[in-house]
Fold RimJ/RimL family protein N-acetyltransferase.
Amino acid sequence: MYAVPLTDDAELRPLQPWQAAEFLAHMDRARTNVDPWIPWATFSTDLDSARATLQRYADRQATDSGELFGIWLDGTLVGGVMFVSFDAKGGKCEIGAWCEPAAQGRGLITAAVRRLLDHAFTVRGLHRAEWWNSTVNTRSRAVARKLGMHHDGTLREWCEFQGARQDYEVWSMLAHEWQKTK
């Protein structure tokens, strides 16, 4: 996938290791928005660590087990979406997203996730896509709802963040449900 328009002023593109400087600048702007939800934001604090983060996803892409995409608004990287995991043989994937404050409230994450869902179901023939979010991440929950995902359940005290256990919701979309949304 190369540049895919999301709106008149935003597009979705692959995010790769050679873009580490741009990714780091974006992470510096997004860190307070992203750190509570995506652990790798904490670890992308200089050029080498930003490159390593992007390389991990490039390696996943090479093995067809994950992929990372950036969202550019007026030519500036402001967020992204990813196949956190991708299991073609098992017919399932997990999708995640993040953004900096400049990208909030524009529908960019929902539009980008819609593109990944369409790719997973229509191009790759997967059966199930998942979306996980902390119960306190109301923006993430809103994306799942807007896309018509099904709330499968809540994992109580599933992970620890900053010394406190958090509950996580699991949402899903099945291929036959996706076809009905088109």
Notes: The chain has a mean pLDDT of 94. The first helix runs from residue 20 to 34.
